[in-house]
Amino acid sequence: NALKLVGPDGIFLDGADGAAVRLEPGAEASVLSASAETTRMALRRGTAQVDVVHREGVRWELEAGPFVVRITGTRFRVGWDPAAQTFDIWMEHGTVDVTGPMLADGRRMAPGEVMQVWVAERRVEVRSGRGTTGAAAPSPPPPVAPTVPAAPVAPAPAATSAEAETPTATEAGS
Questions:
Q1: Tell me, what's the pLDDT at 157?
Q2: How far is 60 from 156, CA to CA, in rounded Å?
Q3: What is the pLDDT of residues 51-67, one digit of tens each?
Q4: Which long-range contacts (CB under 8 A, 24 or more apart) does 152-159 make?
Q5: Mean pLDDT to the nearest integer, 21-47
Q6: What is the 3-state secondary structure (H, E, C) of 85-151?
Q7: 3 state SS of 123
């Protein structure tokens, strides 16, 4: 039984090993297996920010549709859109190895590289700081800061009828 994670407002997971995965709003992922040696996750749809600290003898894998990202200690954003059949990965630092359709021998991604794959169109585009292979790939989205759980916010007290009739500074100046 896999743990299913759905992020209507985003979800941030911290691992005891220093790994962190942040699901963007609307993203859906599953933890397929987790042990001291191996963690396997599946990104079913949406985008995730992944930050994994390299540890000898520990393996991380993230499936995104038909693609598998083997993580060696890195920070990156990855996205999968099952309806459009598109896969995106934006490397911040470290390296990962990606396998999947049109990547027969796999592709090692390096810092600063962006790859986008359109499965139905059988098209792959990779952009790096040194140029682009294929057509121009889109710019990566801005980095996402880790979320910090906020304290619950109490609802504002309801206005009394006297307060509701008192004009605010903006209304009084009109």
A1: 44
A2: 45
A3: 888 778 888 899 999 99
A4: none
A5: 87
A6: CEEEEEEEEEEEEEEECCEEEEEEECCCCEEEEECCCCEEEEEECCEEECCCCCCCCCCCCCCCCCC
A7: strand
